[in-house]
Amino acid sequence: QRVAKGEPVQYVLGQWDFRKLTLKVDRRALIPRPETELLVDLVLKSRQARETPKPLVVDVGTGTGCIVLSLAKEMRDGLFVGLDISAEALALARENAALTGLEGRVLFAESDGCGELDPASVDVLVSNPPYIPSKVVDGLEPHIRDHEPRLALDGGPDGLDVYRSLLMDAVVVLKPGSGVFLEIGDEQGHALREMLEEY
Ligand code: GLN
């Protein structure tokens, strides 16, 4: 009945698989998407993840914790940090760390962006930020628009607001030779390339 009324099946089940993990999912955070599993692949294959001893890996806007928990599970070593502006999402991410036996391997902290980290400290910065233009969010399918957190979807007027503030912080906290791994909307490649060059 809940699904028939438009609630996402993932929230009704209360759990969903992401890579090797079964995670708790509810209205506190975005439902993990299959595309984001590929973002984790890109990190795992990167020179930064494979060749840096104990890399500092930071997931900005961690939501359920799906990205950083998968990296902690699938990378040999590293220091793993999940940040989110939403205290509710962080509570869920911490529950997921406990459920997956990864408690103690990932540190979760409330933060708007990653600007509070030490300068030149981060080896891998990964994020699947909200990147949908505000006007487009209003027209999304109801099972998304009316149930998933708007904070997790809405990237401002052109969808790029969070990338801007993220990259502004990134230039300070990234170590030379580090890597930045971002999920982006399918029409945002050109804008993101320009923005990355600028920063
Ligand atoms: N990082 C989380 C995920 O990939 C949350 C993303 C978001 O809320 N925009 O599912």
Note the run of SSEs as H and E: HEEHHEHEHEEHHHEH
Portion in helices: 25-40%
N-to-C span = 49 Å
Count of discrete alpha- or pi-helical segments spanning 4 or more residues: 9
Strand ordering within the main sheet: 5-4-3-6-7
Radius of gyration (Å):
16 Å
Briefly note the structural class of the backbone: alpha/beta
Strand content: 15-25%
What does this structure look like?
With 199 residues, the protein is α/β, with parallel strands linked by helices. 38% of the residues lie in helices and 20% in strands. The protein contains nine helices and seven strands. It has helices at residues 9-13, 34-45, 47-51, 66-74, 87-99, 134-138, 142-145, 161-173, 189-198; strands at residues 15-18, 21-24, 56-60, 79-84, 106-110, 122-127, 174-182. It has a five-stranded parallel sheet, with helices on both faces. A two-stranded antiparallel ribbon has the order 1-2. The model has no long low-confidence stretch (mean pLDDT 97). The structure holds glutamine (GLN).
Task: Spell out the blueprint of helices and strands.
Blueprint: H1 9-13, E1 15-18, E2 21-24, H2 34-45, H3 47-51, E3 56-60, H4 66-74, E4 79-84, H5 87-99, E5 106-110, E6 122-127, H6 134-138, H7 142-145, H8 161-173, E7 174-182, H9 189-198
Parallel strand pairs: 3-4, 3-6, 4-5, 6-7
Antiparallel strand pairs: 1-2
Bound molecules: glutamine (GLN).
